[in-house]
Design brief:
Number of domains: 1
Strand order of the largest sheet: 1-4-3-5
Distance between the termini: 35 Å
Shape: elongated
Radius of gyration: 20 Å
Length: 109
């Protein structure tokens, strides 16, 4: 399944906004740091857009079936910000306790 690169970036943005909405009013805040994205892409001419090129992110299966000469690997870093240019904060549920729960033995290394 191929997806336009712009749609992939928009999906990440939408998920961050959803997480922010779900955390509204919670006690614990997370500051969202830089997000690194990397894709195998293919440039394709779009007949509907007058022959302009679009960048498509390829799935692993599609990338393997397209010739190496036509695919490119791109990566970039996004730093999410609010519309007012402040850091994006996502709230999480806090239990109201003064001390964190002791999780010793709950997780394996």
């Amino acid at each position: 399944m191929d997806i336009e690169l712009a749609e992939a970036v928009a999906a990440v943005r939408n998920e961050l906004l959803k997480a922010q909405r779900l955390g509204t009013g919670q006690e614990l805040l997370f500051e969202v740091g830089p997000i690194e994205m990397a894709f195998e892409v293919e440039l394709r001419a779009d007949a509907k857009a007058g022959g302009k090129f679009k960048v498509w992110a390829l799935s692993a299966e599609a990338a393997g079936s397209v010739s190496r000469g036509r695919t490119h690997r791109i990566s970039f870093t996004l730093t999410p910000r609010q519309a007012d240019r402040t850091d994006l904060l996502i709230s999480g549920a806090g239990d109201g306790a003064d001390e964190p729960e002791d999780l010793t033995g709950h997780y394996e290394n």
